[in-house]
């Protein structure tokens, strides 16, 4: 039996911070106590020396680009970067090539992850205008949920037929996650800007084109439909303060039927950063104003927004380094998500307890993930040690993404991940990967 004993940690879990030890045996948290002694000479002892022990982040929205787009990223490369960043579980999106819009194609992705993923995993099934029959075959106990692109998608994954959308909302038992931007509004705005600027539209116009109006219109329609049909709706990557008014904090998360997520980049950047960051911060939905950023943080802290995620979506730099109309949206984030949140903690913007709630506890509750997301006896040992006083600078040499760049290049973070344990395996330790972790397909209590 393998065992790891973490001693003298500040344990952040379930709304409190307390000093103690944690014993891991095989893949399970075996004991949590003020003081634990090693039971075997083979036990690996990690003296946390006052560092902070957190449950690993569960990132409910990533694009790891496999299959079909592996020149940008793949499950192995990005899950390894995620583990270095303190993410131990991810849920990946269906817009790969081919798209995961049939049971067979979805299971192909699970097969790849079983062989190559460093972190635990599940995948979203993709909805289209014409695959309702296939959606209804999906077993809700085995798959994270259904992803609907109600705006901004590739291939045929834009679901824009009102009758189809209502049929899906009415009939599926899956949790529905949506990308909400109104395509007609965006198309009109884009055409007007192309008339004025041609292809070389200033990046500062991105949040004007993919506007507050486009986001609010689509989000409000999805919520109205969810209320009408009783569907379980989770709205991905809110980007405007106005949208936060559509969500409630009057019920505990476990009782909510309509929930929301915010991503790191919408909490960190604002439209003032386009001048220096350019296409590196071109995302859909767009990074918007400081007021939007502040409104999102306020809604996160008062529990109208339930989850923090990354929407990690890498492209090569050659692809991104282009004029507005040709530069794809999306960027890599999994390696730097947790340290960015710790920087927000250092600035007094959010507490450690709230960070853990939104990155680990709440994704586990929302998706009904079995035995993960908490530091609890009997739960899977997915754990992260953070040193909150170990400054470092993001640069090309320490970026682990396959695409080789980051929107955080040049940023100095006060905190760093020192250790990541995945299913009881010490996968990451002080800038090295001492053991090859093997992620597991997460299971659901549904």
From TrEMBL:
Sequence intervals crossing the membrane: none
MF term (GO), any: metal ion binding
EC main group: hydrolase
GO CC, any one term: cytoplasm
Organism annotation: Marixanthomonas ophiurae
GO BP annotation list: purine nucleobase catabolic process
Family statement drawn from the similarity comment of this UniProt entry: Belongs to the metallo-dependent hydrolases superfamily. DHOase family. Class I DHOase subfamily.
Domain Amidohydrolase-related: 52-425
EC number annotated for this UniProt entry: 3.5.2.3
InterPro entries: Amidohydro-rel (IPR006680), DHOase/Allantoinase_Hydrolase (IPR050138), Dihydroorotase_CS (IPR002195), Metal-dep_hydrolase_composite (IPR011059), Metal_Hydrolase (IPR032466)
Protein name (database record): Dihydroorotase
Entry function: Catalyzes the reversible cyclization of carbamoyl aspartate to dihydroorotate.
Keywords, comma-separated and alphabetical: Hydrolase, Metal-binding
UniProt cofactor(s): Zn(2+)
A Pfam entry, by short name: Amidohydro_1
């Amino acid at each position: 039996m393998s065992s790891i004993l973490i001693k003298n940690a500040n344990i952040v879990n379930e709304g409190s911070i307390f000093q103690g030890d944690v014993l891991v045996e095989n893949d399970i948290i075996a004991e949590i106590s003020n003081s634990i002694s090693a039971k075997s000479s083979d036990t690996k002892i990690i003296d946390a020396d006052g560092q902070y022990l957190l449950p690993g982040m569960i990132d409910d929205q990533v694009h790891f680009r496999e299959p079909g787009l592996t020149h940008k990223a793949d499950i192995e490369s990005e899950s390894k970067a995620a583990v270095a960043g303190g993410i131990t579980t991810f849920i990946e999106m269906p817009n790969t090539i081919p798209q995961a819009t049939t049971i067979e194609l979805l299971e192909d992705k699970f097969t790849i992850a079983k062989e190559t993923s460093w972190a635990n995993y599940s995948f979203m099934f993709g909805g289209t205008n014409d695959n309702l029959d296939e959606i209804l075959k999906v077993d809700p106990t085995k798959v994270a949920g259904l992803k609907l692109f109600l705006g901004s998608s590739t291939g045929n994954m834009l679901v824009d037929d009102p009758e189809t959308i209502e049929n899906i909302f009415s009939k599926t038992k899956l949790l529905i996650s949506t990308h909400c931007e109104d395509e007609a509004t965006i198309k009109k705005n884009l055409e007007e800007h192309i008339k004025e600027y041609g292809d070389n539209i200033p990046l500062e116009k991105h949040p004007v084109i993919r506007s507050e109006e486009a986001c609010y219109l689509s989000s409000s329609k999805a919520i109205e439909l969810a209320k009408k049909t009783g569907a379980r709706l989770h709205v991905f990557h809110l980007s405007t303060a106005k949208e936060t008014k559509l969500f409630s904090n009057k019920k505990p998360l476990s009782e909510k039927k309509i929930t929301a997520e915010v991503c790191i980049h919408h909490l960190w950047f604002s439209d003032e950063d386009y001048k220096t960051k350019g296409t590196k911060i071109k995302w859909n939905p767009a990074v918007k104003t400081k007021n939007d950023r502040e409104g999102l943080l306020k809604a996160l802290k008062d529990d109208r927004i339930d989850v923090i995620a990354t929407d990690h979506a890498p492209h090569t730099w050659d692809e991104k380094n282009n004029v507005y109309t040709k530069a794809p949206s999306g960027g890599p984030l999994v390696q730097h998500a947790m340290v960015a949140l710790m920087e927000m903690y250092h600035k007094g913007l959010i507490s450690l307890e709230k960070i853990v709630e939104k990155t680990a506890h709440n994704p586990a509750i929302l998706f009904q993930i079995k035995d993960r997301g908490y530091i609890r006896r009997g739960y899977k040992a997915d754990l992260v040690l953070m040193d909150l006083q170990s400054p470092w600078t993001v640069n090309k040499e320490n970026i682990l993404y396959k695409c080789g760049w980051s929107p955080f290049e040049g940023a100095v973070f006060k905190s760093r991940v020192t250790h990541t344990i995945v299913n009881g395996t010490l996968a990451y330790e002080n800038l090295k990967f001492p053991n090859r972790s093997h992620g597991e397909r997460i299971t659901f209590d549904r």
